Records
---
Amino acid sequence: MSKYITATPEEILQAIEDGSILALRDREICFVLVEFCTPTESDLLSALSSITEVAAANKAVVDTIVSNLVIVTFGMIDGSPLAAYESFVAAALSKYGKSVKIVYSVGRARVGNIGGAKRMSFSFVHPEFSMALAALSNP
């Protein structure tokens, strides 16, 4: 876990107590949408499993996996360099070829707990996310 969180346990407890853990921060990030177009469920599950390894090898954070879509981010946390998205995209295209669609964007985003105090979910809000998601549906 220390690879993802650089704060001490005491700092985390203090952030929970004073509410700053809920604060959103403005950060330069890259999000990458990876959509798998695999013929079978078995192929999809294998691809979803292995894409997390490709992401880890490129210091990315897997934000969400929903059905055949994986959202990978760079720059959201310390130790996840923004520039590493290029090597991730190249590795994913090399590994999966035509069985994958990839859309990405780099820019400012609001990063932190999305959902408020009742639902803790570390994620992001990026102005180009909806356009990127729509781009996946284009052939």
---
Amino acid sequence: MGLSQTSFLLITPDGQEHSLELLAGFTGVHQDPLQQTLQPEIGWAMRERNNHFAPDFTGANLRGTNFSNAKAGLRKGWASFLVCVSWLLSGISGFFLAITGGLIVFVFNSSTLETLAMSTTGCA
């Protein structure tokens, strides 16, 4: 639906630290049995922060980080393949554009219209 989430550290009076997350927002809808209308359900929840999910780098300082062994992007050959496919699609669209342009010129050319009118009326 539309949930917001934030992490925080709860320190209890006895000094224990708990890494928690607060989730809040639209959690669903329910239907009123009498009026048959839908109404939003809004709620909130807290849970222990679970580090099994992808890390959140919001506010992280990445200056000086060594990304020399990081791998990203397309595998070898895929970039060339995608460029060739885009050229092929551009050629096909250009071909159909030329055909369409020729048809428009043929239809709206005045000499063509006069020739068609004469041939359909029998005037030579």
---
Amino acid sequence: MNWTWDELDELYEQTAPASAWTDPLPDGDYICTLAKAELRQNQANDGMHVWLQFRVAEGGYKGRHITHRRVLSKDPTSISWLKRDLVAIGYSGKLSELGRRLSGCVGRTVRVTLKTNRRDKRQYTVLAAMGETGREAQ
């Protein structure tokens, strides 16, 4: 041991609680790596959703995580948003294959944009594919 309890007590008293890793990230664009991708049961057990966890890859928030969910539903608008997200992470299979193939997208680089809605103050996530050069894919 290269410390004493008195030294740790003194340091503990002088140190403020950490908040940077628990506070929401500010609105903006983040270059991220897809860290986890899963098909999950909804909390109410009435359906499924795609659950994605991104790790910020660069900048002052490097290492922080951003979580994104997209519900599976028969609504055409919802399917359109889901398809945009799946294309952004490089998924090209059928929806019926998500459970088996979604994790194959882990490691992809994605631009994640966080935006707060002025009316309801909720933060929304928008995904965009990145090309092999690190630029946004067209």
